[in-house]
Amino acid sequence: KDTLKLHEKSSSITAIRANRDGVVFGTSIGDLLYCENNSDKIISLPSISSIGIEESTIHSLAFTDENTLWVSIRNGGIYKLLIEEQRIEPLEGPINYNGQEIRLESGIHGDLWIATEFQGLFCYTENEKSNFKCYDKFDGLNSQSIPLFIELKCDKEGNIWAGTDGDGLFKISPETGKIIVFQHEEINNSSISNNTITQIQEDSHGN
């Protein structure tokens, strides 16, 4: 009965993220629902709408540890949810959230990667003086303009893969700062087939 009530309240699922213990679902009205592994019980976590944020459609989710879930909402910011404490708080920083859909991904060292549509890529690390590292056109993302990022993936080696809308695929090594750009070339049959990358996956062999 409680499960049915939660589903009726949530108009649609807009984001999904798994951790070691279960799966979190984000909804179009800001609800966060958690289902533990080997269980059919759905738990309601503190919602974005509960802290007074309107139009809180959840766009992306990322765990940086088992207790810390990061949430981005469309055109409205990034929030940190501490699951055990049942507390949610905004992430303050240099990103202008207005008009941008933000994609989130966790790095292998517990850092948070943030892909924006107009400001490049950011890496956020807690408990350090310089929390935000910005990767933009001056770091080699693009010599002409800042790419519109729409997808993120951290591979098993810790490299960050960032897909764009029209500017190809970027591979960033957080250890060295090296950036490699993959783009379609008409005369190169080995190049990627399209410069718009909407989804990035890694298989069991690390490919």
Tell me the layout of helices and strands:
Blueprint: H1 2-9, E1 13-18, E2 22-27, E3 32-36, E4 42-45, E5 58-65, E6 68-73, E7 77-82, E8 87-90, E9 103-106, E10 112-115, E11 121-124, E12 132-135, E13 149-154, E14 160-164, E15 169-172, E16 179-182
What key phrases describe this protein's structure?
mainly beta; 1 helix; four-stranded antiparallel sheet
Describe this protein's structure.
The protein has 207 residues and is mostly beta strands. The N terminus is likely disordered.
What can be said about this structure in brief?
The chain is mainly β.
User: How many β-strand runs?
Assistant: 16
- Give helix % range: under 10%
How would you sum up the global shape? globular
Largest sheet: 4 strands, antiparallel
What class, by secondary structure content?
A: mainly beta
Give the helices and strands as they follow along the chain.
HEEEEEEEEEEEEEEEE
Query: What is the spatial order of strands in the main beta sheet?
Result: 1-2-3-4
User: What is the straight-line distance between the termini?
Assistant: 43 Å
The total of helices stands at 1
Q: How confident is the prediction overall: mean pLDDT?
A: 85
**Which value, in Å, is the CA radius of gyration?**
18 Å
Q: Please state roughly what percent of the residues sit in beta strands, choosing from under 5%, 5-15%, 15-25%, 25-35%, 35-45% or over 45%.
A: 35-45%
Low-confidence stretches: 1-7
